[in-house]
């Protein structure tokens, strides 16, 4: 399963349990549409850290990084490549 | 046939129709009719049983489900001056026992059997002159016994017949169970004036198709029901077609917020009907009425309208001061139709307040409704929600009733229940269970979007569960939030 699929699967399970992951548009603005509230974002960040074995630094806690499945996917990819190159 | 004529003007009026129009239909039930003569005969039989087993003036719990026979039993109680305690048929047995004890009721009638429980108390807890003992919903603990005096019942049936043009042979739909105060209009007013009561059996109450069929078959002229009934009928009519219901002259809704979609459907389905939003409580009966202006698009929430004749009202702010002019506070009402106070005086003391008269007269009993109401500069009143529906979610005060109202504004939502469940992270989490129309494909995401566009962020339920089965309801037909919290708590806890 791609990272994006795993993220969709998590969001649906945690916040929109009646949906299937395919019903969640990857560009949906999760905050603006009320799918996830601010506390939910913190929950989700904790999951991203744990699931993808990342440390989300304070400077990365920008809601823009977590606004949609695509945004989270991009953030994870960026963080993993930074980690891989030892940066 | 023997009649006393001493206790209930309403019961005596009903029984007089057995002489005036003996073969005219009094009740319709499951496709069969009961004439006024048959109703009087059944009442006489019930009365003979009561006279044999139950002392004069003793309260009798009528435990049967709604049927013509149950109406006759209640009528026999009214006519003989025995208060009829009507618990909700959905009440668990231990709660029925508790309500009977509270009303000092030692006699229970089911079918033709009368059972006697050892009287736990000497005196009667309901005052002389009590006609009916209704029960509150029980959404906040054990239901309370609400005695209604004969004078209240008689005053109400007089008002209602006049207000809704209920006369000889008028067909009126009775949706509510017999323990609801709504039956004062649908059943007792109609029978006292020689009309035809079309009883909705509980097996049909959740079926839009069955309800629509009854409305059409009987050419119903007057309908009073909770919004759910109209939502079901409206949704069914949209699917079925079949044209408007031209016979309906009055359609009244009460007991809950009327969803916009249901109101729009209703206006289309019943083009000749005057539409009324009625506000009342079991304890006071109908208190305020608002006639919907068909030429205007309604914006929720609907005004509460004007007080019925003889009804007084006032608002009390959180500091306990009576509000004059605009503002919001708890609604207090005093009506000619109200209860003498709960059978349990300690429970009555919190809700029924005596205001002494300036001239040393009898004073006014006010009922504290528990409803938060706002009055604007024009004096128009709007219901904000239940005071006991105020919850705090992460420090934000949320009124769950208002959230429900917003969910009900969604065109495919039939019922909504909002409450809180404990959450290890959030403390309490706001949750909603929403019943959608049968063929709806709306998801929790759609509903969250709907809420987000209309509510402050902290008011959007964290968990929204769409369902297609009916929501659990309390004995008086309110969405049962406690039950919803219990059923949601398990999955919500594991999801956290």
From TrEMBL, chain A:
It comes from the Bacteria. InterPro entries: ACP-like_sf (IPR036736), PP-bd_ACP (IPR009081). PROSITE patterns: CARRIER. Residues 2-80 form the Carrier domain. This is Acyl carrier protein. It comes from Streptomyces durocortorensis.
TrEMBL record, chain B:
Residues 402-478 form the AMP-binding enzyme C-terminal domain. Residues 16-110, 130-342 form the AMP-dependent synthetase/ligase domain. It holds the Pfam family AMP-binding. InterPro entries: AMP-bd_C, AMP-bd_C_sf, AMP-binding_CS, AMP-dep_synth/lig_dom, ANL_N_sf. PANTHER family: FATTY ACID SYNTHASE, NONRIBOSOMAL PEPTIDE SYNTHETASE. This is AMP-binding protein. It comes from Streptomyces durocortorensis. The lineage of its organism: Bacteria, Bacillati, Actinomycetota, Actinomycetes, Kitasatosporales.
